[in-house]
Write a structure and sequence with these properties.
The protein has 376 residues and is mostly beta strands. It is built from three helices and 32 strands. It is elongated and about 80 Å long. The N and C termini lie far apart (94 Å).
């Protein structure tokens, strides 16, 4: 009897160990033009489109399995030899058609978009138009732009479009992370009065965008939301804010927050050689001056107490960039510059100030520095 019970227990443990675990994927299979995996609940996830059609129509089922998602690292497009470029090019469809059954598009999720900013990772970005079934319970498209079902959250704009202007529809309350964050031709982007939230990197890749206006109801703007990533943002010169906005304001086209008096973004395309941070500013925000190549002299006034990460990640000219620091500065993030340009930054500090002590203790051999003369 004991032996029989022992055998039963062993068989039960083996069954539990061998049972499918939620989220674990099986080996890939191919059905027609699609590669897929079967999930533990018996549904399928598309992992690759192998076809050459201009419109990629995601099926509702493959080999009898219900298709409920597109994998985060979805492969779409085929390599073909181009006689024009004498090289192999990736040919991608121009439209991605989503059925009612697909409730998870992995490549527009936060973790997938995070990989785009990690230069060590290769991430495929879908740049075509979206077409979503009217019966889809999670997503919808509005004129080829991907939104959530309610139409209140703009998820991804087709970066491959040639349009130079786009008006985000009224009723939109949120623009998701990286929504306009990939290379596109937009020169004019109009935001609706209903807009409340802007995600990280939302407009970062709009290389031709020249200006933007923040409406009255916008109360949250994410990290590095504006043009100025890598070699982009050279045209971007002005951020204007509704005078009735309770969270943000601009001073001559430079963006600040009201609550903590933080300088959030000095547009990357501004051409002034010198800039005086306005009196009353308390914080220089993360990446505030990132990728601006025109500044040679930056003066920070008394009252500023903190400089956040990457605030001066610019690319100074051969004559360097002189930054005048106040005696009030007590917090200074160590990660400030583009490393290969660090010797072109000249810190001008007040003798005996916290910044003077900070440099003496940590970075005396890393950056150039000078003492401020009386009257500077």
């Amino acid at each position: 009897m004991k032996s029989a019970k022992r055998t039963f227990v062993i068989l039960m443990l083996a069954a539990l160990l061998l049972a499918p675990v939620p989220g674990i994927r099986a080996e890939s299979a191919v059905s027609g033009e699609f590669e897929y995996t079967v999930l533990s609940d018996g549904t399928a996830e598309i992992t690759a489109y192998l076809g050459k059609e201009e419109v990629c129509v995601i099926p509702e089922t493959v080999d009898g399995y219900l298709v409920i998602g597109l994998r985060q690292d979805l492969r779409i497009g085929v390599r073909e030899y181009s006689e024009v470029f004498d090289a192999y090019m990736v040919r991608m469809p121009s439209v991605l058609e989503i059925p009612a059954t697909v409730t998870h598009i992995g490549m527009v999720q936060e973790e997938a978009l995070e990989g785009y900013h990690d230069l060590s990772r290769s991430v495929t970005v879908w740049k075509g138009e979206w077409k979503v079934s009217a019966d889809n319970p999670v997503y919808r498209d509005i004129d080829g732009v991907l939104f959530d079902r309610s139409g209140e959250t703009l998820i991804l704009y087709p970066a491959g479009r040639e349009d130079e202007a786009y008006a985000v529809p009224e009723g939109t309350r949120e623009i998701r992370r990286d929504a306009f964050g990939f290379t596109n031709k937009l020169k004019e982007l109009r935001l609706p009065e209903t807009l409340q939230r802007v995600g990280d990197y939302a407009f970062a890749g709009c290389e031709d965008l020249q200006a933007i206006r923040i409406p009255e109801r916008t109360v949250s703007i994410g990290r590095r939301a504006f043009p100025g990533r890598h070699d982009g943002g050279r045209q971007f010169q002005n951020i204007r804010v509704s005078p009735y906005n309770s969270a943000y304001y601009d001073v001559d086209g430079v963006l600040f927050s009201r609550t903590d008096r933080k300088l959030i973004c000095y547009p990357a395309g501004r051409q002034e050689a010198e800039y005086d941070v306005p009196e009353g500013t308390r914080i220089i925000g993360a990446y505030a001056f990132a990728y601006n190549r025109a500044l040679n002299v930056l003066r920070i006034p008394e009252g500023v107490t903190a400089v956040e990460e990457g605030a001066f990640a610019t690319q100074p000219g051969k004559d360097g960039m002189r930054i005048f620091f106040p005696a009030s500065l007590t917090e200074f993030s160590r990660y400030q510059h583009i490393k290969e340009y660090q010797l072109r930054y000249i810190y001008v500090v007040i003798p005996g100030s916290p910044m003077d002590t900070y440099i003496q203790q940590r970075y005396i051999n890393v950056y150039q520095y000078e003492y401020a003369q009386e009257g500077e």
